[in-house]
Specification:
The structure holds two protein chains of two kinds. In chain A, helix 3 packs across helix 4, helix 3 packs across helix 5 and helix 4 runs parallel beside helix 5. Chain A is globular and about 45 Å long. Chain A starts with a strand and ends in a 7-residue tail after the last strand. In chain A, a hairpin with a 2-residue loop joins strand 6 and strand 7. Chain A has a single domain, classed as 3-Layer(aba) Sandwich (Rossmann fold). Chain A contains five helices and seven strands; from the N terminus they run E-H-E-H-E-E-H-H-E-H-E-E. By secondary structure, chain A is of the alpha/beta class. By secondary structure, chain B is an alpha/beta fold. Chain B has a single domain, classed as P-loop containing nucleotide triphosphate hydrolases (Rossmann fold, 3-Layer(aba) Sandwich), CATH 3.40.50.300. Helices cover 36% and strands 21% of the residues of chain B. Chain B is built from four helices and six strands, in the order E-H-E-E-H-H-E-H-E-E. In chain B, helix 2 packs across helix 4. The chains are: A alpha/beta, B alpha/beta. At the A-B interface, helix 5 of A face helix 4 of B.
């Protein structure tokens, strides 16, 4: 099962994605795929909060924020909670001196390859597309790239859920669990 | 009129082109100015409301003059009101103007569809 979970900041999407992964895994190996590369104390605190949230949930952590296919799980029967597509794109796009405007193509093919190598994947992504603010060219390119990734994943994945204030709406596929 | 809304880059125009078999000559992009004559489909409606708001065009006359209203057209627009309220007064004015304009269009529309991640959701 391949699922995309979208939502705004602090919408509860990671928590819901965790519960979905938990129910899909059915006792199999569960990986939490962490993508954030902390640059300051705020990031570190955010990571700590996520670790506390997962405490006792039986997830093994894979920390890899770019070139994700170098860390494909050996266990093809495992379930991966991938958090997040947003951070992966930022890492891939802004790794060099100049932004890589084709990074989204690599992100899509890498995520699809990862999803083909595990039993279940739940990808978490931020919804950043309904703001009227006029951004600079690079930020706009990033928003556009993220949207293209989400649209492609939505097309090929089995289900798409939107999370608002902890409430899940099915945009594609069916509801897998009652929350 | 059929109204298609959604966030930036969600595939609104792609959806409309496929759903209504549109040709590029059927589509007018408000980013490129104001149309002469009628089109089957108008896109980037938010660019039209931005210009109208920044020039402080009275709202009622804006709606009355809108070429997409009177005909059986397709109007595509971004939703722009979900972010933080802007500090800049012009930006705030546009945001509210656009929200009112979309509501006015939706009231007159035979259908309103929201595109999320390329997936359509019929709101009306």
């Amino acid at each position: 099962m391949k699922i995309l979970v979208l939502g705004g900041s602090k919408s509860g999407k990671s928590h819901i994605a965790q519960e979905i992964t938990d129910s899909l895994a059915q006792g199999g190996t569960k990986y939490y795929w962490a993508t954030m590369e902390p640059v300051d104390e705020e990031d570190s605190a955010r990571i700590e909060k996520h670790i506390t949230d997962r405490d006792g949930c039986g997830f093994e952590t894979i920390e890899c924020g770019r070139n994700i296919c170098s860390k494909l799980p050996v266990d093809k029967n495992s379930s991966v909670l991938f958090d997040s597509v947003t951070a992966l794109l930022a890492n891939e796009m802004f790794a060099g001196d100049t932004p890589d405007i084709n990074a989204h193509e690599r992100v899509v093919s890498d995520l699809i390859e990862l999803s083909d190598n595990v039993k279940n994947i739940v990808c978490v992504c931020d919804e950043i597309f309904r703001d009227g603010f006029c951004f600079d060219e690079i930020t706009e390119q990033y928003r556009y790239s993220l949207a293209l990734i989400c649209r492609k994943l939505a097309e090929v994945f089995d289900a798409v859920y939107e999370v608002s204030c902890g409430i899940m709406t099915v945009r594609k596929g069916r509801l897998l669990l009652k929350l | 009129m059929k109204l298609i809304i959604g966030g930036a880059y969600q595939g609104k125009l792609t959806y409309a082109v496929k759903k209504f078999s549109l040709d590029s000559k059927d589509i007018f992009d408000f980013a490129g100015g104001y149309p002469e004559g009628q089109y089957a489909c108008y896109t980037h409606f938010e660019q039209l409301t931005r210009r109208a708001a920044l020039s402080r065009q009275p709202f009622d006359s804006f709606i009355d003059d809108f070429p997409g209203m009177a005909f059986n057209s397709i109007v595509i627009s971004r939703e722009i009101g979900c972010g933080v309220v802007p500090m800049d007064a012009d930006e705030r004015f546009w945001r509210e103007y656009h929200g009112m304009a979309l509501s006015a269009l939706a009231r007159n529309a035979e259908s309103v569809t929201r595109i999320f991640c390329g997936i359509p959701e019929v709101l009306k």
